[in-house]
Structures are given as structure tokens and as C-alpha cells.
């Protein structure tokens, strides 16, 4: 699987090696990225950075800016990763 996060864009949700922002916050704040399965994401941080999509009444949070367009290409596939 390729790493969608390897763009030259600034990624506020993955600063400091993907630890400070992604792992900050309480357990209720945490989820995983549906595109990069298993990658922890802080809902609060992702939402503040615009790294989310709504699909069929559910909100999906992403680890980086590259995951949103990937999710858009086949939202049902990626939403199934969260089931």
C-alpha cells in the first residue's frame, strides 16, 4: 500500500513524526484513518484541519490531506474499513 501522506503539503495532523497531534486528546477523541487503516487520528485535530468527510450520515477523519481525495474516489470502500 502506498503512503498517501508523502506529499509536500504541510500536514498539521501529522506534525512531529505523527505523534504530538494525532495522539493528543482523550480516548473518546481518537479514531483511525479509513484510508491508511490503523493510523491513529485525533478527531478534534483532524476536524480543525479540515481532514474529514461525511458519508451516509457518518463522519470519517483522515491522517493527512492525501486521504480525503482517496476517500472521495470510493467512499463506500473506505467506509467499510471502519465497520
Please supply descriptive tags for the structure shown above:
single chain; 83 residues; alpha+beta; two-stranded antiparallel ribbon; two-stranded antiparallel sheet; 4 helices; 4 strands; 17% strand; plasmid; YHS domain-containing protein; Ferritin-like_SF; oxidoreductase activity
What does this structure look like?
It contains four helices and four strands, in the order H-E-E-H-E-E-H-H. With about 80 residues, the protein is α+β, with helices and mostly antiparallel strands. The chain has one domain (about 15-80). Mean pLDDT is about 80; it is low at about 10-15 and about 20-25.
SSE diagram, text form:
Blueprint: H1 15-19, E1 30-32, E2 40-42, H2 43-48, E3 52-55, E4 58-61, H3 67-73, H4 75-80
Antiparallel strand pairs: 1-2, 3-4
Region (Disordered): 1-27
Pfam family, one: YHS
Domain YHS: 40-80
State the gist of this model.
The chain has helices spanning 15-19, 43-48, 67-73, 75-80, and strands at residues 30-32, 40-42, 52-55, 58-61. The protein is of the alpha+beta class. This is YHS domain-containing protein.
List low-confidence stretches: 12-16, 18-24
- The ordered H/E elements are HEEHEEHH
Provide mean pLDDT, rounded: 82
Strand order of the largest sheet: 1-2
Kindly estimate the percentage of residues that lie in beta strands according to DSSP: 15-25%
Query: How many domain regions?
Result: 1
The biggest beta sheet is recorded as:
2 strands, antiparallel
> Which of globular, elongated, flat, extended, rod-shaped describes the shape?
globular
- Label the structural class: alpha+beta
CA radius of gyration: 12 Å
Distance between the termini: 20 Å
The percent range for helix content is 25-40%
Number of helices: 4
Counted beta strands? 4
Keywords: Plasmid
Pfam family, one: YHS
Domain YHS: 40-80
Region (Disordered): 1-27
Amino acid at each position: 500500500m502506498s503512503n498517501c501522506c508523502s506529499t509536500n503539503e504541510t500536514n498539521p495532523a501529522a506534525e512531529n513524526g505523527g505523534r504530538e497531534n494525532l495522539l493528543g486528546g482523550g480516548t473518546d477523541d481518537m479514531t483511525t484513518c479509513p484510508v491508511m487503516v490503523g493510523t491513529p487520528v485525533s478527531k478534534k485535530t483532524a476536524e480543525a484541519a479540515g481532514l474529514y468527510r461525511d458519508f451516509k450520515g457518518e463522519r470519517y477523519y483522515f491522517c493527512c490531506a492525501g486521504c480525503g481525495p482517496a476517500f472521495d474516489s470510493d467512499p463506500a470502500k473506505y467506509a467499510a474499513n471502519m465497520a
